[in-house]
Amino acid sequence: MEAIESNLKKQNLLNDDNDPRLPSTLICFSHLRWNFVYQRPQHLLTRYATLFNVYFVEEPYFDAKADPYLTFTVQEDSLWVVAPHLKPGNSNEENDKQLKKMLDKFLDGKDLSDMIFWYYTPMALSFSRQYTPALTIYDCMDELSMFKNAPKQLRELEDLLLSRADIVFTGGHSLYQAKKHLHDNIFPFPSSIDKKHFEQARTNKEQPTDQESIGGPRLGFYGVIDERFDIDLIKGIAELRPEWQLVLLGPVVKIDPSTLPKLPNIHFLGGKTYDQLPSYLSGWDIALIPFMLNDATRFISPTKTPEYLAAGIPVISTPIKDVVNPYGEQNYVEIAADAQGFVDAAERQLSADREEWLTRVDEFLTQQSWSLTFENMMQELTRTLQTKSFTS
Known about the structure:
The chain contains 15 helices and 14 strands. The protein is an alpha/beta fold. It has an eight-stranded mixed β-sheet with strand order 3-4-2-1-5-6-7-8, sandwiched between helices. Helix 2 (about 40-50) packs across helix 15 and helix 9 (about 230-240) crosses helix 13. The two termini are about 30 Å apart.
């Protein structure tokens, strides 16, 4: 963080006493829960919390018995998770009214010129649009309008957010290509890694209890198992190679669990914490990205791609655009379109000498880290804030 602070001082946005001329507070509005899956928002906002007081506002829980209320959970120094609790059964309009009322109370008496609003979901504009902070940021990590059960008003609110945002980030290059004509201050920041965290998989010797009894070869996946996950592909691989074991980690959401394949060599082990992932990866021979090609995956940039590679494990993926380019085109990842293609690729990798491949992977990954992403984002953020102050 010292290098970041030094760069900010050079831009005259921090003085020598580290007293920020930047706003002191960042409020993030997210469609994800902090403790669901550790991914882009958590990686970035823990780093922003070194410079700002960060409030991560989750989507509401519908469990209030009486009046709606907010809970504040200290996640770490200068970072709070804010959870709205609403009464169940109300209309969307009433929910937005209650959320607006709670936000108004939270911001009462506070200086909006000392705040940054950071949006992961345009839906939050339905209760926050009345405010104009010093800086509005839209970190568009996914094309949410194409996800299953997406709200009808999401596109309209995204148009409004794009018109109000001072700066826009995208979660990958394909999403940037789709959005770049919609804003004049937009930048792609693809998925990155905490390399040291996942490198632990290369030296870990102790297997998790629920995985150690599973034989091999092991082909693994971790992540949310939802409408993007290709159930038929997994079933096909398992049927073609019944002696191989498929280990699948992650919560099942938005799909009926009864539709998941039930074969003796497919093992659903449930969700795991971020800290647990390296120990599971250490026992895999192949890592999988078995996503369908549909609207929900058209613009995704799976964070697991560089994480798998940092663990030193060969990766096979369906032809997701942001995996094909750059990972597939540079032969860091095998690309396959169907079960037989996955089996063929896995057989090549199971018998391959990986030394030269791993050397190339490690060299490639030196260019990626969440800290570097954070620093580059901060440079664009501070430049935008400085430009805005000069023109206002």
